[in-house]
Amino acid sequence: MTATSPGEPAARIPLVIDTDTAADDCFALLVGLIDPRADLRAVTIVAGNVGFDQQVHNALLTMQLAGRRSPVFTGARRPLERDWVDAVDVHGDGVGGLRLAGPAEPDGDDAVGELIRLSREHDGELVVVAIGPLTNLALAVRRDPEFAHRVRRLLVMGGSVNARGNITPAAEYNVYVDPEAADTVVRAGFPDVVIVSWDPLTLRDAVFDAARIERIAELDTELARFFVRANAATFAFDAAAGLGGSTHPDSLTAALALDPSLALETRRYRLDVETAGELTRGATVFDWRADDPNVTVVERADGERFYAHLRGLLASR
Q1: Please, are residues 252 and 32 in contact by the beta-carbon 8 Å criterion?
Q2: At CA 100, angle to CA 54 and CA 312, rounded to 5?
Q3: 3-class DSSP state for residue 208?
């Protein structure tokens, strides 16, 4: 990486966001699109939250509303070995019923090939933000075993640190949907894997209560109105579940990719994924005792600064 001189702006970070675009995933895209530190080279779509074509629509809609466009590539439409499990009950369609103002199409249908191509183009510099099931990443590893070694940093929104899940008592949604993919990725040899977990991190540091949502609504910008509308279904679901507001781990993950100082505490763990258990499918086992750690877990984040940053981006348009 080329060093910068004092006073010279830092180089933008070449970024890929791999996403199952609904609600908070859309807000993560806004981070990648608007934050001046990001060079969003591609958005890759993976089967997850809502119907696949709806996810593609949601990504293109987010870009249209942001007034920014990055290439969009469709990827795996189903998990490696399992039947797809959606989260429509949480997100609705993921954008509150909004529709594209005009025609828009993805730029290609080989997300895996694009991930590999960008890892070669930005060898040792590419940052990948994975905020859905890890199917596309696992397929990239299978197609090109050197892919993992060329990625500078992989940030994964997934799992819970020896704690509760959000789709089963044992498992967080992204890992549960495709545990074989998650297992492949954590074993692939990525040099720097950062985990943003559901519990305890998200539930403590990335919940927006009604007062925070109201402060966003008061901005009355196009993006703030989009946020409130797209977030409404998730807010209602999470509030009914007793979480105190809507959860925003995906946009936190994108923000951490650009500003690692948002992580106030981290710890190294050995992560293994349960693929065989009948009751514990997708459970993430973080071993704090292991002498061969393979991930860095964000244990505490600056939730106030994250919220302020996201609100600032929503105020920009």
Answers
A1: no
A2: 95
A3: strand
Between CA 88 and CA 24, with CA 306 as vertex, the angle to 5 degrees is 10
CA atoms within 13 A on the CB side of 102: 2
Residue type, 170: A
Question: Does this model's pTM top 0.90?
Answer: yes
Could you read off the pLDDT of 177-192 as tens digits, one per residue? Answer: 999 999 999 999 999 9
- The neighbouring-strand residues paired with 295 are 269
Cα–Cα nearest to 157, from 298, 11, 3:
298
For residue 263, with 0-12 CB atoms within 10 Å meaning exposed, 13-18 middle and 19 or more buried, which class applies? buried
Place of tokens 């987010």: 62
Element (H, E) at 165: none
Please list the alpha-helical segments (H only) found in the chain.
24-34, 52-66, 88-91, 111-121, 135-143, 147-150, 173-177, 179-186, 203-205, 210-217, 222-240, 249-258, 303-314
**Taking each helix axis from N to C terminus, what angle separates 135-143 and 179-186, rounded to the nearest 10 degrees?**
50
Of 129, 136, 128, nearest to 177 by C-alpha is 136
Q: Which residue has the tokens 């966001």?
A: 17
> pLDDT by residue (tens digit) across 139-179?
999 999 999 999 999 999 999 998 889 999 999 999 999 99
DSSP character string of 17-46: EEE--STHHHHHHHHHHH-TTEEEEEEEE-
In whole angstroms, what is the distance from residue 132 CA to residue 254 CA?
12
In angstroms, how far is the first alpha carbon of the chain from the final one?
Answer: 32
How many residues does the structure list for the chain? 317
Distance CA 161, CA 303 (A): 18
Burial, 68: exposed, middle or buried (Cβ in 10 Å; 0-12, 13-18, 19+)? middle
SS3 51: coil
In the chain, the amino acid numbered 87 is A
Integer CA distances (angstroms), 159 to 132, 151, 247, 267, in order: 11, 21, 14, 15
- CB 276 within 8 Å of CB 172: no
